[in-house]
UniProtKB/TrEMBL annotation:
<comment type="pathway">
    <text>Amino-acid metabolism.</text>
</comment>
<dbReference type="InterPro" id="IPR051122">
    <property type="entry name" value="SDR_DHRS6-like"/>
</dbReference>
<dbReference type="InterPro" id="IPR002347">
    <property type="entry name" value="SDR_fam"/>
</dbReference>
<protein>
    <recommendedName>
        <fullName>Dehydrogenase/reductase SDR family member 6</fullName>
        <ecNumber>1.1.1.104</ecNumber>
        <ecNumber>1.1.1.30</ecNumber>
    </recommendedName>
</protein>
<keyword id="KW-0520">NAD</keyword>
<dbReference type="Pfam" id="PF13561">
    <property type="entry name" value="adh_short_C2"/>
</dbReference>
<dbReference type="InterPro" id="IPR020904">
    <property type="entry name" value="Sc_DH/Rdtase_CS"/>
</dbReference>
<comment type="pathway">
    <text>Siderophore biosynthesis.</text>
</comment>
<comment type="similarity">
    <text>Belongs to the short-chain dehydrogenases/reductases (SDR) family.</text>
</comment>
<keyword id="KW-0560">Oxidoreductase</keyword>
<dbReference type="InterPro" id="IPR036291">
    <property type="entry name" value="NAD(P)-bd_dom_sf"/>
</dbReference>
Length: 176
């Protein structure tokens, strides 16, 4: 299960629009909302009927600390989409808690992934971009994708049977 969670998470985490609301074209907005929110809406809507039939289910959505949790410079559309994921998660949890369905979301901070490394290398000064990312890491390192996957495995397990409607922050204290 760990490897499946890890691969899905890597795919979802690849798209991050850089800029303010004034830098965001409608196509950027639509693309980001489709990738980060609509995809989760469609997946939840597709699987909920079977979960309801079984009176059991567990949904784990991927949000971000860059959302309603923390404002981040030049992440307007991304943060807005991830805040919507938190709202979607809480709504599903509230609507279906009495029907045996749990719904939570994971909110990572900066995660060291090939996608992040590629975005850093695409900057005019990759060395400075890396230093800027590291400067905001209060623990002195970035989160690993494996650490995020371990949290997802916990949320998918019976050990978290009493957990629903929550955002699970894994950011090394970045939001503080």
């Amino acid at each position: 299960m760990f490897s499946i969670v890890f691969r899905v998470w890597q795919l979802v985490y690849r798209f991050v629009h850089h800029g303010t609301i004034l830098d965001c074209e409608e196509a950027d907005w639509d693309f980001t909302m489709n990738v980060n929110v609509r995809s989760m809406y469609l997946m939840c809507k597709a699987f909920l009927p079977k979960m309801l039939e079984k009176k059991s289910g567990n949904i784990i959505n991927m949000a971000s600390v860059a959302s309603s949790i923390k404002g981040v410079v030049n992440r307007c559309v991304y943060s807005t989409s991830k805040a919507a994921v938190i709202g979607l998660t809480k709504s599903i949890a509230a609507d279906y808690i009495e029907k045996g369905i749990r719904c939570n979301c994971v909110c990572p901070g900066t995660v060291d992934t090939p996608s992040l490394r590629a975005r850093i290398q695409a900057q005019p000064d990759p060395e400075q971009a890396y230093k800027d990312f590291m400067a905001r890491q209060k623990t002195g390192r970035m989160c690993t994708a494996e650490e995020v996957a371990h949290l997802c495995v916990y949320l998918a397990s019976d050990e978290s049977a009493y957990v629903t409607g929550t955002e699970h922050i894994i950011d090394g204290g970045w939001r503080l």
